[in-house]
Amino acid sequence: MSGAMQKRLQKELMAIQKDSPPGVKVNFNNIHNNLTQWIIDLDGARESLYDGEHFQLQFTFSPQYPFESPEVTFIGPNIPVHPHVYSNGHICLSILTDDWSPALSVQSVCLSIVSMLSSCRDKKRPPDNALYVRTCSKNPKKTRWFFHDDSV
């Protein structure tokens, strides 16, 4: 890991620890000395369809971070049922691919995911969930996403 990447990740870790968004908490049991993979505990926002539910996000940082987006997936036994979340934990969210900017951070990604979940009106999987899960790469960053919402 480069010194610049390590410095950036340490800064982000301190920032999210000091001022984490509501319902977002770094799981320090999984970070140890390896800053390249984080587990974030995420609670569903109050008064949303996910109120009272608990999720985990895994962030994996490549050596090109922050110039390249982290790989972010839901992990564990509770993957949210959502039109932009596949049953394998892959998340269809533009800031994780084409709309990534080095100005974004773990904190801003978490806020975007909480917002995405909070705005959900109907708990359902993406229309192509079964096919996608059967044929996709293990790394969601290798997916060429089709944003179903864009076709409306």
TrEMBL record:
Give me the segments passing through the membrane. Answer: none
Domain UBC core per the UniProt entry, residue ranges: 4-152
Checking InterPro entries in the record gives: Ub_conjugating_enzyme, UBC, UBQ-conjugating_enzyme/RWD
Source superkingdom: Eukaryota
Protein name, as recorded? Ubiquitin-conjugating enzyme E2 W
What organism is the protein native to?
Fragariocoptes setiger
Record lineage: Eukaryota, Metazoa, Ecdysozoa, Arthropoda, Chelicerata
